[in-house]
Amino acid sequence: MSKKRTTIKRGAFKTYLPFAIIAAVLLIVLGIGTWLYQSALRTEGPARAALIGAPGAAPPRAHGPANAPVTLEEFGDYQCPPCGTLYPEMVKIEAEYGDRLRLIYRHYPHPAVHPNALLAAHAAEAAGFQDHFWQMHDQLYRNQTVWSRAGDPRPLFIEYARGIGLDADRFVRDMDSAEADARIVADHERAKSLGIETTPTILLNGQRLPPATTDLRSAINEALKMQQQQ
Q1: Which among 149, 187, 153 is positioned nearest to 55, based on CA atoms?
Q2: Predicted structure pTM score
Q3: pLDDT above 70 covers what percent of the chain?
């Protein structure tokens, strides 16, 4: 009787052994899958590899250290009202983060919607040829509501150029130059290659931020934190 019971137990062990092995394997696979998923979540956002697209104008219109841990690349239209709203916030952010931040500005005018935007981009580039890009950039956004209503904003742009100390004759020539046009076209091609359709659009360390992102500081702080952990 005892021998019979032992035989039954051994038979049952042999029967259930394959199932136990399968269950163990499934647990291991599940554990690995969970770890990979959590890793993916941790790398979602600024730590992912930078998007690859057309290079844009080179060198870009940028200020801040080239080795700054955070780079914001803004695609903007000088006549775009949301871009004008974003501008003072970007000025504050640059002041707050200092050398930890680099800002790149890319031209992406939409002349079909904003008829003066393309000429404004040319004005910014013409000022850039005299090393005053950011000064003109500031003038264009600060006075957006003024020149946007003008039938011909060119006289206003020349006035801004004189106000920031530019050679006005050279500014006029450069505003109409092929060099200025080529830089704007290159930025436009970069935007299109990245699938960007609206302004303002911002890339943080090469990764596109969602359009609904309103708290840039949180995104920047997260990027800085991830840089420190690497």
Answers
A1: 187
A2: 0.78
A3: 77
What's the CA gap between 221 and 47, in Å, rounded?
12
d(CA 103, CA 74): 8
- CA distances, 67 to each of 71, 97, 99 (Å): 9, 14, 9
In one-letter notation, the amino acid at residue 208 is R
If DSSP states are collapsed to H, E and C, what string results for the chain?
CHHHHHHHHHHHHHHHHHHHHHHHHHHHHHHHHHHHHHHHHHHCCCCCCCCCCCCCCCCCEEECCCCCCEEEEEEECCCCHHHHHHHHHHHHHHHHHHHHEEEEEEECCCCCCCCCHHHHHHHHHHHHCCCCHHHHHHHHHHCHHHHCCCCCCHHHHHHHHHHCCCCHHHHHHHHCCHHHHHHHHHHHHHHHHCCCCCCCEEEECCEECCCCCCCHHHHHHHHHHHHHHC
d(CA 14, CA 191): 64
Q: Is the pLDDT of residue 24 over 90?
A: no
Ramachandran angles phi, psi of 73, nearest 5°:
-115, 110
